[in-house]
């Protein structure tokens, strides 16, 4: 089995690095965050009237 040339290892490393970076960028920008208004609606404000 012939050995692989160092330039091929470098190209493979760059290819997998590029795929990893593109995958991470796609995952970051595809997700749609919830708007702050939905968070505000989910919290109920309970006001306490303290009777001492």
Summarize the structure in words:
The chain has 52 residues and is an all-alpha fold. 62% of the residues lie in helices and 0% in strands. The chain has two helices and no strands. The longest helix has 25 residues, at 6-30.
Distance between the termini: 87 Å
* Radius of gyration, CA atoms, in whole angstroms: 26 Å
Q: Residue share in helices?
A: 55-70%
Largest β-sheet summary: none
**Number of DSSP strand runs:** 0
What shape does the CA trace take? rod-shaped
List the secondary-structure elements in sequence, H or E. Answer: HH
Instruction: Please indicate the percent range of residues in DSSP E strands (runs of 2 or more).
Output: under 5%
The residue-averaged pLDDT reads 79
Low-confidence stretches: none
Helical stretch tally:
2
State the secondary-structure class: mainly alpha
In short:
The protein is an all-alpha fold. It is 62% helix and 0% strand.
Secondary-structure blueprint:
Blueprint: H1 6-30, H2 36-42
Please name the defining characteristics of this protein.
52 residues, mainly alpha, 2 helices, rod-shaped, proton transmembrane transporter activity, ATP8_metazoa, ion transport
């Amino acid at each position: 089995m012939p050995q692989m040339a160092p330039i091929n290892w470098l190209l493979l490393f760059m290819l997998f690095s590029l795929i990893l970076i593109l995958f991470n960028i796609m995952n970051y920008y595809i997700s749609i965050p919830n708007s702050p208004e939905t968070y505000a609606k989910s919290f109920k404000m309970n006001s306490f009237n303290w009777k001492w």
